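Example 265, ligand D-glutamic acid.
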Amino acid sequence: MADTRPILFFDSGVGGLSVLAPTRTLLPQAPLVYAADSAGFPYGTRSEAEIAARVPALLGRLAERYRPRLIVIACNTASTIALAHVRAALDVPIVGTVPAIKPAAALSRTRVIGVLGTDATVRQPYVDKLAAEFAADCTVIRHGSAELVQLAEAKLRGESLDPARFRTVLDGLFGQPGGERIDVVVNACTHFPLVEEELDAAAPRPVRFIDGGPGIARRIAHLTGGQDWPGMPAPGIAVFTRLDAAAQTLAPAFARYGLERIEAL
Ligand code: DGL
């Protein structure tokens, strides 16, 4: 009998779609469940204690309901704060999402890297650790933006976006001392690759934007290598912790990612 257990993606909102998309390309047969903690959104302005308590509890409930073969915490904020707690609490393989500082350091010629994340992510010691380990000879300039998270959500709801708002966000990064030398920007929030085109257009000069999505997808494919998949993938499920009107307006965008069924947790 085919193994129908899904891969479960988790984020506060739509951001994890930037990890789900490359995973779907590599594993087209994989049954997918996408969980958005809409009742807890946004995470980036919450405290460490709130996230560390909330994420393992929710993932416990989701794991019980969907029996996933693997869980992807497709959220930098939740991963940099709660990955260890989730791993300790659940008996399911967990893949996290951490800022792509290592590949950024490999690419940068100027040795000045920008890290764009949520406020909660950019202040994490985890980011200091990554910078010390993989970018010790680089200047790492960070900027936290809650606005950009909202812009990504708005884009997926089909709203039109004012380019000036992206320029203002990027001013917060490139306007810092040394910012004029940044040549690679890490999108250290899974929401941000969803607005990469808008970021590209708003950047003061051409820079490379990179994110962890494709690398995480390869890691998922590696970890599930040799596993059995159903012949026909079942329609994907999007599950919201609060299924309100705002969540419902995301249905067409989710359907474009193969997530055709909408449920409430
Ligand atoms: N997508 C999330 C991240 O990668 C968090 C966005 C938010 O809820 O603030 O950090």
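Summary: The chain has twelve helices and ten strands.
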